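S.,

Sequence below, as promised.
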Amino acid sequence: MSGPDREARDGGLDYRTAGVDIDEADRALDRIRPLVASTRRPEVLSDVGSFGGLFRLNTAGFERPVLVASTDGVGTKLRVARDAGRHEVPGYDLVSHCINDILVQGAEPLFFLDYLAMGRLDAGVAEGVIRGIANACREFGVALLGGETAEMPGFYPGGDYDLAGTIVGVVEEEYILDGSSAVHGDVLIGLPSSGLHTNGYSLARAIVFDRLGLGVDEVLPGLDVTVADALLAPHRCYLPELRPLLRNRSLRALAHITGGGISDNLPRVLPRGTSAEVNLDSFRLPPLFRLLADAGRIAEGEMLRTFNCGVGLIAVVAARDERTILETLSGAFRLGEVTAAADPPRVRYRGCLA
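The prediction came back faster than expected:
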């Protein structure tokens, strides 16, 4: 026997019997290829299947361009998506989350790379995930430059899969947002979230599926919406609203409210000598969060460190331009103020979640 097409000897092993189906991988690639191509930007020089993605950085309009990169995942929201059969959702959310993470440093996104690992490769599921990624990339002008789809039998059980992504963006060095210019008297502006986004799902799942005993297709009590619709609401991307403000000197800092909630994320963008005072009476806890708080008997402090509580992003702005910026940002509201403090930055709350 010779050549690549020879069959395995009787009793012999091959990659497929070990759990890896290369033919299914080829089918997945055929379905993914047009999705990736649909996100192409003029700077992309490589095709799908290259060992590395090529992107020509256009520095026109920049004097000192700085690349900004971030890698993240979507946590156990993947489990809800898998159980509901809605595989496009985590792909879309992954891109939105990563864009927000570099946006808060003043960067606009350039390209994205994904990593999808599955216990058993299913071309249809892989296509759904990548379709979600490609949809978000097209919507926000990001090139899906490359990625990896790995089949890992014996590592991920059954139909489980994991998903991560890396984004690269660019910012003019002069306009990097690091919070260093924030001062006492600056205003905190909150932007509403579209739901849980991609954080707190381990606790949310424990409440909804274990304590309340609900399935993904059942209606949440008092909300008139299914579990799947509520828990799989897309992660809001704030790039469209904030892009016009990224070179506005009145924008001091941005905080993406992810794991750790307001309590842990807002101090990350404040300089020493300052703290934040957040008025909880300035917004109402959305119904989904109220249901989770009540059903899980979650203390207010735990809510504010686990969930975004309806505030997906916080902008720190100069008080003189508060009104103008509030009118620019969709649904924005005054959340609080920056205060002077001798201690490392932290959040002080007044009012209560209602």
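The mean pLDDT is 92.

Coffee later?
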